[in-house]
Design a protein that fits this description.
The chain is α+β, with helices and mostly antiparallel strands. It has five helices and seven strands; from the N terminus they run αααβββββααββ.
Length: 145
């Protein structure tokens, strides 16, 4: 089983107890790719960390409701006064998905949320009203001399 070899042979996971590695294996979602298939390009939104073994991709963000990896739909950026809160929320909102993330953010004007979604080979960007408070409205470069 490639999944067993992957976790056992990777130092990051090899130090974990067998029962923890077994639980991770149960939650992994293998995806198969053809040789030479492009998985991502420079500048693509970073939506997940994954490992590719023998043409299969394994992600690292799991939906606690299902125990399965979150589908790669796009990315979430959160801006808040507290950077730890922004970090935690970006992962939680990614798990919720784009519609639920934006609905949640609309109710919280003190937090800015940017959602970038894979959209027919391109990227669709949407954001919450709270994000605008964190943006620079007008910038003028004044040169001396």
């Amino acid at each position: 089983m490639p999944e067993r070899r992957l976790l056992d042979a990777t130092r990051l996971f090899a130090v974990l107890p067998d029962e923890v590695r077994d639980a991770l294996r149960d939650q992994m979602e293998p995806r198969t790719y053809e040789r030479g298939e492009i998985l991502f390009r420079q500048g693509d939104p970073a939506t997940e960390l994954f490992v590719v073994v023998e043409g299969r991709r394994y992600g690292h963000i799991f939906d606690p409701r299902t125990g399965r990896p979150v589908p790669a739909w796009g990315s979430v950026t959160v801006v808040a006064r507290d950077p730890l809160l922004a970090d935690i929320l970006s992962t939680a909102l990614l798990v919720l998905g784009p519609e639920a993330a934006l609905a949640w953010a609309r109710e919280r004007p003190e937090i800015g949320v940017l959602v970038l979604e894979d959209h027919g080979g391109g990227v669709r960007s949407r954001w919450s009203p709270g994000l605008e408070a964190f943006l620079v409205q007008d910038s003028t470069l004044v040169r001396g001399g």
